[in-house]
């Protein structure tokens, strides 16, 4: 392989580390710049998305660099949703018709560290921690970083921004007037709370993603390998019923006792968690273009952050890396061709999952508890059983396949249209039959 110029990857988060691995395997020298200190030696930030659900798209990417088994060794498979009504029994809703397909609860920190260590071990990868990108000239690839020692200059033949939803690389392109962006924030925020182990064991079923659907608010809980659960409460940030409305410990306890009564005995640190854990923001980032002259590119949340309600942000970011690798293959590593091709292929898919994630918020918050929704799910599973491979639910296609997100939307639309046509035909047949019976009755 011929000598290649150094590629800069900004952000050693999930996408950046995976990307460094893929690029190093292609023979590129890679400089991975990260604003934080090495997370393998430091402490985890309080209340910041401790775990996440990894599904087929993410696993497919990890398999390609041989990291899937290591990551899955500590994964906790969640085979369905466990609904917690305000009163009454918990109800389990399987994710798949067979009941054995699962999304996986993974420690975000452990996943990031595994990817970082994998990248670090590859020849050609150097990692610069405590390097916050503050300047970028998209015409030259010249970068400026803030470090504990002061400002540092660096340059690369290609700069790839994998620096998350608040991307500084995207901000620089915006400043140069070569990119436009839109940020759609929800008026909901999120706060993390903890359910510790109970008597040394999980306090809830560890094989499910737990949901407390409450209409205007919602809480979910995912299991952790230490037998605790991390709960995430989604609630408006302002208004009479919102994060802003609970001040005192008594008000916090009263609120949870009313709306989440089964949480109270399980979360002894509830008030402390509530008062000290930060409120995170939720939103959708859209921007265009995702690349400038084959010299600067964006991927992962930096290009298309989405709301977390389908558990797909990281999965989608990983899929970006696989697609970019494919584009480099097809374009003989000609970045000026590969980056535009990558954008062309991924843009509609990123938009599709952004919209499905927003729609899933309504489903999780409002619909999952309703008998009508539950009947619909039973019918859907019956259809999947009756028409294997021909009728496949949206959830299954998103979480358990690598079918491009935009194709998932088109396919689900086609399935619904076909079902609608069948329903109309069946209704017409039924109406005809009833009419015949009535006519016969009149004659008789
Ligand atoms: P990030 O993970 O944000 O990484 C960006 C990196 O860039 C960080 O290390 C950061 O320190 C660094 N950086 C930032 N600015 C600079 C700078 N100026 N210079 C240098 N470095 C910089 N996704 C799922 O797939 N499943 C889930 O279940 C799921 N749950 C979620 C729950 C919540 C509450 C939230 C908020 C998100 C969730 N996501 C989930 C989404 C997922 O976290 C993101 O999509 C994913 O982290 C994106 O990866 P990334 O590498 O693009 O960005």
UniProtKB/TrEMBL annotation:
Cofactors, names only: FAD
Catalysis performed (reactions): L-kynurenine + NADPH + O2 + H(+) = 3-hydroxy-L-kynurenine + NADP(+) + H2O
Residue ranges of the TM segments: 418-438
Listed PROSITE patterns: PROKAR_LIPOPROTEIN
Pathway: Cofactor biosynthesis; NAD(+) biosynthesis; quinolinate from L-kynurenine: step 1/3
Domain of life: Bacteria
Keyword list, A-Z: FAD, Flavoprotein, Membrane, Monooxygenase, NADP, Oxidoreductase, Pyridine nucleotide biosynthesis, Transmembrane, Transmembrane helix
Sequence ranges assigned to domain FAD-binding in this UniProt record: 6-333
Family of this protein: Belongs to the aromatic-ring hydroxylase family. KMO subfamily.
Function of the protein: Catalyzes the hydroxylation of L-kynurenine (L-Kyn) to form 3-hydroxy-L-kynurenine (L-3OHKyn). Required for synthesis of quinolinic acid.
PANTHER family according to UniProt: KYNURENINE 3-MONOOXYGENASE
Protein name from the UniProt record: Kynurenine 3-monooxygenase
